[in-house]
Design a protein that fits this description.
There is one protein chain. The chain has about 475 residues and is an alpha+beta fold. The protein has two domains: about 1-180, PAS domain (Beta-Lactamase, 2-Layer Sandwich), CATH 3.30.450; about 310-475, Histidine kinase-like ATPase, C-terminal domain (Heat Shock Protein 90). About 55% of the residues lie in helices and about 15% in strands. The protein has nine helices and ten strands. The protein has helices at about 1-55, 65-85, 105-115, 125-145, 185-270, 280-300, 320-335, 360-375, 440-450, and strands at about 85-95, 100-105, 150-155, 155-165, 170-180, 345-350, 385-390, 395-405, 455-460, 465-475. The longest helix is centred in the middle third of the chain and has 90 residues, at about 185-270. The radius of gyration is 60 Å and the shape is rod-shaped.
């Protein structure tokens, strides 16, 4: 539409300019045509008068009837010219003795040329005065050039002087005041041009309408194809996302299944060692185990559990108690002297930490894989693992640090992508070789931390070893 409007504006401007230039061309052509037409008419009239006078001299006119015939012929010649719509006046201007005669009637021409030449033609009107004045101005040029002299008076009227020959010599001039009427011819030309302009504009409009219809149809078909491709692509993306969620969900279940198996083994072991002295302690520990297994089973129900089962004012969790329980009743039961490579756990827990409104078993799912990661990546050595809690007053954050004195993280795992995510926390990223379902502990810990509104970071200690840092905003 914009292109159509622009072209139409230019077409209108072009038509206007072309119309003006064409009118100017027509005007110049008509001026030339009118001048040529006026000079031709004057020349023919003068030639006719000269021939009639020469013819009259070769014949004797003795009777009054002959006189009348010749005079009528001369008057008819003069009157026929004047009767034409284009010719206003016809005069014969001749010099005689010391005067200039302006002759406009056949009897005067007869008396002067065929009679005794004693007729004196007086100025009979304003027009004859103008004719005499025009002759006086152009007399010398006429005698010198012996050519037709014409000039335009106003826009349409021509004054024409044609040399008048008497016995082969220039004796005067035939004067004519001619107003050629070419309005009908000019109207015809303008009408033809306007018709061609309208036709051309119509063709342009039809061409644009055809282009518009073709483009509209093409654009509609293109949009339809784009929509179909978009729908197909959206369907493929939904299927791909669903497949990825399902795959990740399956791997997460596999990942937590081992934890549930380990906890179930602790439950069985506690039940076998149940006695009256340790009844309360065992019951509390088994209850915690059972609640964790319940949480694992709940996680198997949905890939994206609702937020209120993670963060809720009903949850009143003590971070120190969760860390202590995980270390004492999970890791110390596995990594103890005489069972496997021992890991020395040290706790540096700040007192009077505020209560957090996060499900304690969700916190368990964050902290436990990070501790397990530190242990697994230093399985060939005995390490010391420090768990510290503190408060950052300036940021009002609760900070949990899990650091070890092992080999630390490889530098490539600490590199960040364009979104600021370190490679360590990406899906399926692991330094363990030959294990198909490894690389999900840190990834899941970060994802769960993010849903809690917490930040999980990783770095190497300056004195050696790796360190995970969890910052929990206290609002």
């Amino acid at each position: 539409m914009v292109l159509f409007i622009i072209v139409m504006i230019f077409q209108m401007a072009l038509s206007f300019i072309n119309n003006q230039s064409t009118n100017q061309l027509f005007k110049q052509a008509m001026d030339y045509y009118r001048r040529d037409s006026a000079e031709r008419i004057a020349d023919l009239t003068t030639t006719a008068l000269e021939q009639m006078i020469e013819h009259g001299r070769t014949h004797v006119h003795d009777s009054p009837e002959d006189y009348d015939v010749v005079v009528q012929s001369l008057d008819k010649l003069l009157s026929q010219q004047i009767l034409q719509r284009n010719i206003d006046r016809v005069y014969i201007i001749v010099e005689h003795a010391d005067s200039i005669l302006v002759i406009s009637e056949g009897s005067q021409i007869y008396d002067f040329y065929l009679g005794e030449g004693t007729v004196v033609a007086n100025l009979d009107s304003l027009y004859s005065t103008r004719a005499l004045s025009y002759f006086s101005v152009n007399r010398d040029l006429l005698w010198e050039s012996e050519q037709i002299i014409s000039s335009l008076d106003g826009d349409n009227t021509f004054h024409v002087l044609v040399p008048f020959y008497d016995r082969g010599e220039v004796a005067g001039a035939a004067y004519m005041r001619i107003t050629p009427d070419v309005s009908s011819f000019l109207s015809l030309l303008k009408s033809a041009y306007n018709q061609s302009g309208v036709l051309f504009t119509g063709l342009v409009l039809m061409g644009f309408m055809a282009m518009f219809l073709i483009y509209s149809y093409t654009a509609r078909e293109r949009d339809l194809v784009h929509q179909q491709l978009f729908d197909q692509r959206a369907k493929q993306l939904r299927e791909q996302v669903a497949h990825q969620k399902e795959s990740l969900f399956t791997k997460r279940i596999y990942h937590t299944h081992h934890k549930a198996e380990k906890v179930m083994g602790f439950i069985k072991e506690d039940l076998r060692g149940l006695s009256e002295p340790n009844l309360d302690e065992t019951r509390n520990r088994v209850t915690k185990y059972a609640n964790f297994v319940s949480r694992v089973i709940y996680d198997m129900k949905s890939y994206d559990p609702p937020l209120h089962v993670i963060r809720n004012p009903l949850f009143q969790t003590n971070i120190n108690e969760v860390i202590s329980f995980i270390v004492d009743n999970i890791f110390n039961r596995v990594y103890r002297e005489g069972v496997t490579n021992a890991v020395n756990f040290k706790l540096d827990l700040a007192q009077d930490l505020p209560i957090v409104q996060v499900n304690e078993f969700v916190i368990w799912e964050i902290i436990e894989p990070l501790i397990q990661n530190a242990v697994d990546h230093n399985s060939d050595r005995k390490i010391e693992l420090l768990l510290r809690t503190s408060i950052e007053p300036e940021n009002h954050n609760l900070v949990i640090e899990i650091s070890d004195n092992g080999r630390g993280f490889p530098e490539d795992l600490l590199e960040e992508d364009e979104n600021g995510i370190k490679a360590l926390f990406k899906e399926s990223m692991s330094t363990k070789e030959g294990e198909e379902n490894s690389g999900y502990g840190c990834y899941l810990a970060r994802e769960i931390s993010r849903r809690c509104g917490w930040q999980l970071e990783a770095r190497n200690n300056s004195q050696g070893g790796a360190c995970f840092i969890i910052r929990a905003g206290l609002g």
